[in-house]
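Objective 1b of the project was to move from sequence-level analysis to a structural picture of ligand recognition. The entry below was assembled by the postdoctoral researcher (A.K.) and checked by the PI before modelling. It contains the amino acid sequence of the target and the SMILES of the bound compound, LQR7VSFR.
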Amino acid sequence: MCESATDAVHPRFFKKREIHVKGFKIALIQLAVGPDKAKNVASAVSEIHKAKDKGAQLVALPECFNSPYGTKYFDEYAEEVPSGATCRALSKAAAEAGVCVVGGTVPERCGDKLYNTCTVWDGSGKLLAQHRKMHLFDIDIPNKITFKESEVLSAGDQITTFEYQGVKIGIGICYDLRFPEMAHLMAKQGCSLLVYPGAFNMTTGPKHWELLARARANDEQLWVALVSPARDPDAGYVAWGHSALVDPWANLVAHLDHRPDTLVADLDLSLVEEVRKQIPIRVQRRTDIYDTIHKK
Ligand SMILES: NC(=O)CC(=O)C(=O)O
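Corresponding predicted holo structure:
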């Protein structure tokens, strides 16, 4: 059975709770990923524990952390969610470390379909959320990069948010970052943080990675975390790296370079309320006008 768990964690099932937290410590693990799946998973687990030792409460992994990133690999590395070996390892690591794990992405097999899927585990190892990449990475930049995820992957069709310590968090995967509408829907569902496991490349990374993170943070006045695999210059797809954390003022508050490393930082959630109060675009939108024009 590999039904999407999204329904089970859909925001409408959350009871309203009055929990006031100022923030928490987040760790973004820029993992070195190679062809050995068991080794990739073991090193993710070991980094989760190290992040916990540094005080992290929420730990995030990169896109495609158990497999090289490439359409020719997805079928071979795919597993069912949540019964596959990678999910079981993440669930166990989250429970043993007692942290929330945003489990990067893995190629997910569901019947005859494959998805690029992020799973989220709470500190007791329970599956909190499952997001399937909604916008597939199909681009063609002549002489630079051509990629067509849709040759092998199916697209997700759900917005995914979950609650951690009273904070609503949204998940997007890599190319999803380019779509402001999706970030807007997650913000409308109450998110204060959006986490994007992603693997931009040597063409689009330097141009758009930080720009898009800051754009989404600025549009929606929330925290944005991007988690990339480390760069392997010998891989078929060379990731940009540069995992990054952007605050609700759109400041790049911390980032890594291209090497394997972990970014650990405190998230001050009071900044979300601060910027939203001081620049109140959320209540100034002229949807009355936009809607009229849109209908013409
Ligand atoms: N790999 C992706 O999904 C997205 C990407 O690299 C880009 O948008 O650029």
